Structure formats: structure tokens, C-alpha cells
Amino acid sequence: MIRVAPRAVLMGRWVMKGFRSLGYFMLFTVQVFRLTVTAPIRIKHVVEHAYLLGSKSVGITLITAGFVGMAFALQVVREFLKFGAGKMIGGVVGIAIWRELGPLMTGVVVAGRVGAAIAAELATMKVTEQIEALEALGQDPVRYLVVPRLVAVALMMPLLVGLADCMGFLSGYVMAVGMGRINPYWVIESANSMLSVWDIVGGLIKGSVFGVLIVLVSSHLGLLTQSGAKGVGDMTTRSVVVSLILVFILNYVLSSVMF
Amino acid sequence: MIRISNLVKTYRARRVVDHLDLEVKAGEKIAIIGPSGCGKSTLLRLIAGLHQPDSGHVHVLGQPIHHLSMPELTSLRSQIGILFQSAALFDSLTVYENIAFPFDAMSAMPHVIKKRVKELLALVGMSEFDGSYPHELSGGQKKRIGLARALALQPKIMLYDEPTTGLDPILSTSIEDLIVHLNQQFSVTSVVVTHQVSTVFRTADRVFLMHEGRLLPPVQPHQIDDHPDYRVFVRGGL
Lengths: 259, 238
Description:
Distance between the termini of chain A: 54 Å
Structural class of chain B: alpha/beta
Radius of gyration of chain A: 22 Å
Largest interface: A-B, 14 and 21 residues
Strand content of chain B: 15-25%
Shape of chain B: globular
Largest sheet of chain A: none
Number of strands of chain B: 10
Oligomer: heterodimer
Distance between the termini of chain B: 30 Å
């Protein structure tokens, strides 16, 4: 008989649990995409969620993007001026904002605000029998609850990322012109020459992908909730943590492939 | 109407339904009693097709509910009404929208839906609450609205999960009155799951005691005290 160390057994179980969770998530993702493509989409629900999940995130997205843009420009302006490369600041800030910081910061904001809201709402519905009531009344919970949120966030994310990009660049511009005394013409001109259309479009696509991922993770975890108020809290926290980790990983992968 | 054979359901290595058999005829009113956590609500969910059994069969209105396609299941479910323990009203919808919700899956005309919702609100005595949200209602009022919603599509079978649990005696009586009234008026087949013996006396023709995942032979409500196992449960021994 083969003897296995208890630690190896525990690790094996942990790995198996991880693969099982991943498997369930993949099945859920396939189900959501299948329903999104095949089932009729309720425009009214999509518009409601676009307002609740998208429009109400504009303020926090702009504030976050504004300060991140300022902090980034602050460092870039200081260092670039030392090397006499002030004319490149606009382009460097632009590339950083449009390719990386805009989509990433928006992803973080949406994971924290929208992902948590979705996970908490669905988890509460699960523990208060509302999901079962939906099924009993002939509605598929995934089609009714998840698909409109997914479509709404996928549509709203490029808009949020676009706003964040503009706000971030504007903040960087203010820092470069105001603090670094760089000629405004050079800020715009270097951004114009260094940035391509793909940098902007790619960033918007990244934002949409992050939004879809956040909705999938938070919906999946919300619908998996088993026990009462503690379960709701645990799943909400877990959805934010998992979403954030996946957004950062996916950001690296997408940046490697796209730019 | 409902035929269950050899049904098994296990949760985390605990067998909550253990080779259970049950037959409910059309128009019959049965109650399933038993201590909390004995598997009564699970059985109700298995009957409604909300949970998948490990093995065994559940036939509702002649159809194997766990082996139906989604459209078939949706069609069958329109003939089954469920009153959940917590009423399970949708928080984000008003009372009116909650009761109108079952029509969402149908292609009913708006004026037909409006008329039906008004009838149902009147039936449960909640006409003036159509614009309220669930959080503005008391426990008893929520149950009434839950009942109205369950009745929206005129089901042939009503499943009640602890309909009077958590309510004071006056509210419990009013919910029991409603169940009795509905049974008489619409002669629906009803399955009441409860651990409150007082509810059983008013709402059931036959009573089953659920113990260790199985149903004991049924008795009539007035015979509960004559049967040793039922007597033990009523007196708090199980």
C-alpha cells in the first residue's frame, strides 16, 4: 500500500478543488454566452442595468482616472525633465493612459463597485429563495439576471474607459503644462505622433473584456452562495478579490498580445 | 397527480430523502410534517423540479419532471404554484409587478394581466398594496402576496413550504383560511409542508410524518394523537 504524506493529500485536494471550481466557471461562461447569443435580449433590462451599473460609475471612474493620471504625470515630468526629454511627455503619458492605466483603473473601479453590487444582489436573491422562485415561475435565472447585466456592462465599459482615458490624459496634460512648464503644443504633438488608433481602440476592447469577466465572476459566485448573511458577505468579498486578480492577469496577457 | 418512487437525495454525505415513495391524487390535500431539517422542504423542491434527485422518479401530472426539456419544464411549472417559506418576493419589484411576473413568460395582453392581478390582490385581501415594495410589508402580507403570485397562472397543484412559520397565531389563522378557501374554490391539489401541527388540522385530509428521509404511513389529522410516532412528534420527542 502506498503511503502519502498528509500535506500532499491536502495539496492534492486543494488542486482538485481549484480545477473543479474552474470547470464550473467554464460551464457557467459557456451557458451565459450561449444564452446571450440564442435567447432574446430584454432591451428594457439592459438599459436599466446600463444606467445602474454604468452611468452611476462615471463619477468614481473620473476621480480615479484623474488622480492616477496626475500621479503618473508627476513622476514622468520630474524624471523626463532631468534628461531633457520634456517634449516626449505627452506621448508617454498618452500611451500609458490609453493602453494600460485607463482600462486597468476602470476595471478596478468596476470590479469594486459593479462586481460587488452584482455578487451581493444575486447572493441575497439566492439565500432568500428568489432564485428558486424565478425558476419555479418559468424563468432561467442566468438568462433573466446575468445576460442583461453582461450586455449592459460590455456596452458601458468602452464608454467608461474612454472617459477615464480622456480624464487621465487631461490630468497629465495639466501636470505637464502646469508643473513641468512644457509647451502645450509639444504635449499634444508628442501624443499625436506616438499614439496610434489601435492604442485607443485596443484600450477600449480591453475594458470591454474586463467588464465581461467581472460580470461573469461576480454572477457565478453570487449564484453559488449557500448560506445566509455571512455567505453573502463572503461571496461579495471573494468576487471582488477574484475579479481584481483576473483583471490584472488578463491585462498582462492582452497587453502582450495586442500592443 | 404526483407520483414519487424510490426517491433519494443526499447533501454532503447526509441522506435527507431516503428511498421515499408517495402518491397524491387529484384534488387531494396532504400535509407533510416533521422536525426542522428532516428534508420536508427538499422533498417539496424535488417535486417542483427545483432540485435534482440522486436516484428515483418524480412524476407530476404524468410527466417525469426531472427528465424534461426546458420548454416542457416551463410548461409544466406553469401548472404548479409554490408558496416559499420566505415568500421569496422579488425585492426590486412592486407588489403589482411581483404578481404580474408569472405572465412574463406568457404572451398575455397587458389589460388581461392587469385584470388578473387585481383579482388576485382582492382574493388575498391586499388590493390597496399594489404599489408597495416587499420591504414595506409584514411577514403575513408577504405570504399573501407570495400566494397571489403562485396562483397567478391558475395552477393545478399548490406546494406550500411552511406557510405559517414565523407568523403570530392570528396571521397563521388568516393564511390557513386562505389555503382552505383556495382549496374549496379552485379544488387544487395541495401539498403543505410544515412543522406546525395546528396548520395540519385545517389544511389537510392526510398527514405524513417525515422521519430519517422517509414518510411514515399516513393518518388523518384527527388520528395524530392515536399513532405513537405522530404523538411523539407532536409532543416534541422527535
